[in-house]
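Protein in question quoted for reference:
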Amino acid sequence: MNLREIALPPLLAIDQLRKSFADRPLLAIENFQLQQSSAYVLTGMNGAGKTVFLRILAGLEKADVLAWQFMGQVQDARPYPAAMREAIVYVHQHPMMFQMSVAHNIAYGLRVRHYAKADIAERTEQALLWAGLWDLRDRLPQGLSGGEKQKIALARAKILQPRLLLLDEPSANLDGHAREQIIALIPTLVAAETSVVMACHDRDLINLPSVHHVKLRDGRIEERSGKHP
């Protein structure tokens, strides 16, 4: 751990998270922390609750939480904290594409948040270049590959400058070249001071430098390798 990490509070800290379905316990996490500008891979058996956990972190799924702490500030446990809703973005394994151009798909979140047109144009251009999508900027989603759609989803998330990006199986069902492109984008997100949590079993993602590996087992989070989360 370097001095910069010591000086920064955790990005997100959770105290006593519980989630059940039809009275069947799924998650029982006592304490968990995510550090700022860090990458994590979350593994676990099918049905362990990885997707549910990510959706809870993003405020898309309800759970019983004793306390949230975000950027060093204690947040009200109910409802889901507004400060976190603005700063955390979740990307589905099969991201939805709007029936509009690639550029407009990427800019969608900025338009919803009523950013100035000039700012939207500049940031969209930067996101297109970052994701290697410039040549597709005027294309509609029909006919795009799975890898291209995943890159659009990542660019659409990155353009919002989230503090925490949650990726559900970001490299699943992609061919070799598309996988390599997606994997190559992850370190650039961390370099831009976004923390990333990826639910996956992709060994290349797990073995990326400085990625923390945590596992969801029997409803609890276990550290597998790397620095403690």
Observations:
- The mean pLDDT is 91.
- Helices lie at 3-7, 50-57, 82-87, 102-112, 117-130, 146-158, 176-191, 203-206.
